[in-house]
Design brief:
Blueprint: H1 3-29, E1 39-46, E2 59-66, E3 74-76, E4 83-86, E5 91-94, E6 105-108, E7 114-115, E8 121-122, E9 128-133, E10 152-153, E11 160-161, E12 168-176, E13 189-196, E14 202-211, E15 217-224, E16 229-237, E17 247-255, E18 262-266, E19 271-276, E20 283-288, E21 298-301, E22 309-312, E23 318-325, E24 330-335, E25 340-345, E26 348-351, E27 358-360, E28 364-366, E29 374-377, E30 386-389, E31 391-393, H2 399-431
Parallel strand pairs: 12-20, 12-21
Antiparallel strand pairs: 1-2, 3-31, 4-30, 5-6, 5-9, 6-28, 7-8, 9-10, 9-25, 11-23, 12-22, 13-14, 14-15, 15-16, 16-17, 18-19, 19-20, 23-24, 24-25, 26-29, 27-28
Helix pairs in contact: 1-2
Length: 435
């Protein structure tokens, strides 16, 4: 081994260990960076073949890498839009909202998201969170989880829920059998039900059950909350046998509505069709009281009157008041009309080799050939981790380990520096041989 080779080996050691110190410095500086992944430098031997087929003396180089697959500790925060991943997976983010270019999407574990001035969720590094939007029927539809094309930026701005009119209503409950068949029937039993107009306005419909002097016979009357009458129908109930308590027959249906309002009744199904005069085009609502010979709707048994249980479609208009995010990544909007509907699903991107991802600015990562194919999986399913709202994942840096490595690397650097100074002295001694 010549003196020059010794000099080169020492220099390679200095260069490699200075790189290692740089990685350690980055780790210590980012010890409190949410979602940060520890970087490192591994020493790799370098050597070249000599002209006679032998191997020249070896040097060393630093092979840099990132420990992406090791999780950091989770800590609680006070913000509902802070998100932490427990297990495998990454958030999909982009530098611009509603990005369409697949190469501009990145992966990150930094979940410190907050709405910007437009309501788009953006983390502290400036990346926008992407998710799959739910449609008006609260379904995701057909989505491709192997590409970014169906993703949209999660927006929690001033969302409004448009109202939808009620078209169908079901009524169930019990009326007391002992109140019928009396010489002087008592007062009617009253209940009301909420329904929604085409403009999303909440209105109420009144139901009056008047007992008669005939046993198990009632007269049902329907009206609006403003007192407008729609119609009435006579209802007879079974008083014995296996069908006791169920409607037996509907008869004498009569409309008392003023046009264009209307009332019709189908005795075969126990369904009333109301035409409500609340717009240029009147609203039609079908109200199911219960089919004859079935216990699925109204019943008549001895005992107390029970308030009606109403099932109705439609929705009142409302504005978003807060959001909730569950462990499956579903973002729910809670509106001031009391409704709660899914807005987005936040997928978790998984790759075959997380440690093969390329580090990008802002604590994010880009896909590479080494990372392998990706898939956008639902949190909590398969190998994907779960989401925790109101929490953040800390860095996976262990400061004590980094400081220990720093001391060890400094010693190695000093040793390589000693090689250089020693070789320098040897060269100086060689130069003095001619004197």
């Amino acid at each position: 081994m010549s003196i020059s080779y010794a000099m080169q080996t020492g220099v390679s050691g200095l260069r490699a260990n200075s790189t290692a110190v740089g990685r350690i410095s980055e780790n210590i500086a980012n010890a409190n960076t949410d979602g940060y992944r520890r970087s490192f430098a591994q020493m790799v031997t370098t050597s070249t073949l000599s002209g006679n087929g032998g191997i020249n003396p070896s040097g060393v180089r630093a092979a840099q890498g990132t420990d992406v697959s090791t999780e950091g500790a989770m800590r609680a925060t006070e913000r509902g839009t802070d998100l932490a991943i427990g297990g495998a997976g990454f958030f999909v983010v982009s530098k611009q909202p509603n990005e369409t270019n697949a190469s501009n999407f990145f992966l990150t574990r930094a979940g410190s998201f907050l709405p910007d001035e437009n309501g788009d969720l953006r983390n502290a590094a400036g990346y926008y969170l992407a998710g799959f939007p739910y449609d008006q029927t609260a379904t995701l539809g057909i989505i491709d989880r192997n590409q970014f094309g169906d993703l949209k930026t999660v927006n929690l701005g001033s969302l409004a829920q448009t109202g939808s009119p009620t078209g169908n209503m079901t009524v169930s409950g019990n009326i007391p059998a002992q109140q019928t068949g009396l010489a002087t029937p008592g007062e009617p039993f009253l209940s009301s039900a909420e329904y929604f107009s085409p403009l999303g306005e909440a209105e109420r419909m009144q139901f009056s059950w008047q007992p008669t002097d005939v046993a198990s016979r009632w007269v049902l009357s329907m009206s609006g909350s403003d007192g407008a009458q729609y119609g009435n129908v006579t209802v007879d109930f079974h008083d014995s046998g296996p069908l006791a308590g169920a409607p037996r027959a509907y008869s004498a249906a009569a409309s008392t509505a003023t046009a264009p309002a209307g009332f019709a009744f189908d005795p075969a199904t126990g369904t009333a069709t109301l035409t409500v005069d609340n717009g240029t085009v009147p609203q039609t609502i079908e109200v199911s009281i219960g089919a004859p010979d079935e216990h699925t709707g109204m019943t008549q048994f001895a005992g107390d009157y029970s308030a009606l249980k109403i099932g109705a479609d439609g929705a009142e208009s409302g504005v978003l008041v807060r959001t909730e995010i569950d462990e499956r990544g579903d973002v729910y909007g809670v509106f001031n009309n009391g409704s709660r509907k899914p807005l987005y699903n936040i997928p978790l991107a998984e790759v075959a080799n997380p440690d093969g991802l390329l580090a990008a600015d802002g604590n994010a990562y880009a896909l590479s050939r080494s990372s392998g194919k990706f898939s956008l999986n639902q949190a909590g399913q398969g190998s994907a981790g779960t989401l925790t709202a109101g929490a953040l994942e800390s860095s996976n840096v262990e400061v004590a380990q980094e400081l220990t490595d720093l001391i060890r690397t400094q010693r190695a650097y000093s040793s390589n520096a000693k090689i250089v100074t020693t070789v320098d002295e040897m060269l100086d001694e060689t130069m003095r041989l001619k004197r």
